[in-house]
Design goal:
The complex is a heterodimer of chains A (132) and B (219). Chain A is mainly α. Chain A is built from five helices and two strands. Chain A has a domain of 92 residues: Cytochrome C3 (Alpha-Beta Complex), CATH 3.90.10. Chain A has a two-stranded antiparallel ribbon. The N and C termini of chain A lie far apart (51 Å). Chain B has a single domain, classed as Up-down Bundle (Fumarate Reductase Cytochrome B subunit). Helices cover 81% and strands 0% of the residues of chain B. The longest helix of chain B is centred in the N-terminal third of the chain and has 28 residues. The chains are: A mainly alpha (132), B mainly alpha (219). At the A-B interface, helix 4 and helix 5 of A face helix 1, helix 7 and helix 11 of B.
Amino acid sequence: MKRTPLIPLALLLLVAAVFLAVPAMSQQDMTTVPTEGFKQTTRLPAVFAHDAHNEKAALADCSACHHGEKDGKRDNSADTSGIPCSDCHSAQAKPGKTPLMRAFHRQCMGCHMDKQKGPVTCGDCHEPAPKK
Amino acid sequence: MHALFNLAVGPLAWLAFALFILGSAYRLMAMRALALKKDASFVAYISWPHALKSLAHWITPFGALGWRENPGVTVVTFAFHICLFLVPLFLMGHIALFDAFHGWSWPALPDTVADTLSIVVVAACLYFLWRRIAVPEVRFITRTHDWLVLALVGATFLTGVLAYHRIGDNLFMTTLHILCGEAMLVAIPFTRLSHMLFGFFSRGYIASEFGSVRHAKDW
């Protein structure tokens, strides 16, 4: 019987996946708000370069965005960095939870309106990502 | 510009909706009181069956003789009014604002459909503008109010289309669009746009007189 190259192939795929996944998960390369949590999107993903944004906004406290939850309310004392937004904020609303689109809009637009800095209109976020 | 945007989507939006709803309620009640005072004998003849039958005919394209007289105007009028209502109520961008600020959400039109329908409204406004200038019998009855409301609707939809296509500074265009829309909302009870409130009653009254008194159709 001829040996199938299944195991070496699988190993090769695994290595490739790790190599591909590392840059994908690094925030340095993030150019838009992650949209994996949505089944389908109606607009272009909102432009968001994580590191450049935080440098410009002088944001050192991760929990300003990566907040936690306490008794169904936002808890800014908890730092949830590294956990994808969509893990808690699913696209479809569950009772007492904030759906993903509302969470993104409130997070970005809300802060930009408060600080009167940064994009607040549809077209200023949902635009073609700048070419690198 | 950020401060103006915040004002437009916040306090001015509340003000615009309040003036629209309360103003409309006031105008309807004031008109009812006036009708009872000056035209009580006519009010007594209001007949719901005749009114509803006539309304059914007049809200159907070409369903009334008046609509068959000038097919071009009929097509544009219906297209204009249908789009005028569909787009603001079911545009994703509008729903997203209600969703973010109040947690209210409802199904939206696909963006490309809403975009096309908005362009239809702008084109219809241009047609109405041309008619008011070029058709003598229309120009004859055109008053300042008519230009004002046409400009309000045209500007609201034009700035909306431009903002969607990201033509011009987006914050400026979007803010202008919101302010125009709010002005339009406030204008509904207090200008000729009040035909949105009174049109059905005028039709009902005419239908009642034709139906109950003259025993004739008014469509």
